[in-house]
Amino acid sequence: xxxxxxxxxxxxxxxxxxxxxxxxxxxxxxxxxxxxxxxxxxxxxxxxxxxxxxxxxxxxxxxxxxxxxxxxxxxxxxxxxxxxxxxxxxxxxxxxxxxxxxxxxxxxxxxxxxxxxxxxxxxxxxxxxxxxxxxxxxxxxxxxxxxxxxxxxxxxxxxx
Length: 160
Ligand SMILES: Cc1cc2nc3c(=O)[nH]c(=O)nc-3n(C[C@H](O)[C@H](O)[C@H](O)COP(=O)(O)O)c2cc1C
Hints:
Blueprint: H1 2-11, E1 17-23, E2 26-32, E3 35-39, E4 44-49, H2 54-62, E5 64-69, H3 75-81, E6 95-97, E7 103-105, E8 110-122, E9 125-137
Bound molecules: flavin mononucleotide.
């Protein structure tokens, strides 16, 4: 299965995003590569999230999120938001609130402000389908590719 793992990361083109979530006064964010557009009208994105992530609880309760596009120079941000259980995870980066109330990362190339519409179980993840309510470009640059993140997500250990 090791080869499948490598081929998935190297050949199935994906970007790298920081997904911001909020429930009441609590905000959080996590790095995600499994994000894709799945509808034109309405504009829908699907985010595949491990239901054990702290962010999943906030996403479920808050019902909104922002998808923040990382640039190729932002490996440290990808790494930081790829960790869980940090004392003050949101101290990294400059965060403001979007139209939906989701936290948006000002250093990102662009963001998509979303409302959760529904979710579908997908193996060990939940596929959360979100409607894009607003979108803005914030900075210039080229989007980061998942294939450039190497072993950052420790995904090899999840393959049987
Ligand atoms: C490059 C990269 C891509 C990732 N992609 C996803 C993803 O698509 N879905 C997911 O649930 N977790 C993904 N992760 C893992 C989460 O970012 C990580 O488990 C994070 O610690 C969850 O944070 P939280 O527990 O604070 O919510 C990825 C991590 C990295 C480094």
